[in-house]
Write a structure and sequence with these properties.
By secondary structure, the protein is mainly alpha-helical. The protein contains five helices and no strands.
Length: 167
């Protein structure tokens, strides 16, 4: 089997560009008012987020960067844009590879001796987790609006009021 060196510099440049793009798109989303501009930003964010996921996936497997500590650090920063901490995501992902195509991971299939309660929990739990992911993305967009609006509010000149000053 042929082995290849991990392109560490290239991966760092790509991960940095993805982080800058994700933050920029989130910041821009907090500034736009027409719905179509928001839709375009969401589309762009989806593309960048997907490639960010791919880089995080490589970090989960420990092949994003050759130095394990730096690999985990970059994976952790990339995971900030997802709904769970990097180490938790990695644990679940590696566990998935261990159980892949086994009865343990066939939660969408019904076996005769399976508990109805457990099956419902697995199916609805997965849907609940997906809803939390969407909610977390919405929170990130809301946070980006606040992050961009705060310096603008601080830079505004105070408006005179007709109320007497409290001394």
């Amino acid at each position: 089997m042929k082995t290849f060196a991990i392109p560490a510099r290239r991966n760092l440049v790509v991960a940095s560009a993805q982080l800058i793009a994700m933050l920029s798109l989130l910041g821009a989303a907090g500034q736009v008012t027409p719905w179509w501009a928001g839709a375009l930003l969401a589309l762009g964010y989806g593309v960048v987020m997907n490639s960010g996921y791919a880089m995080r996936h490589e970090a989960e497997h420990g092949i994003l960067l050759p130095h394990r500590g730096l690999n985990d650090a970059v994976g952790t920063v990339l995971a900030l844009f997802f709904s769970a901490p990097f180490h938790l995501i990695r644990q679940g992902h590696i566990g998935h590879h261990i159980r892949n195509r086994s009865d343990d991971e066939a939660f969408d299939l019904y076996f005769e001796n399976a508990s109805r309660f457990w099956k419902c929990g697995q199916l609805y739990g997965t849907r609940y987790a997906a809803a939390r992911f969407v909610e977390a993305d919405a929170d990130m967009i809301d946070f980006s609006h606040w992050l961009v609006a705060l310096p603008q509010e601080a830079a505004r000149e105070p408006q005179p009021t007709n109320q007497p000053a409290l001394v």
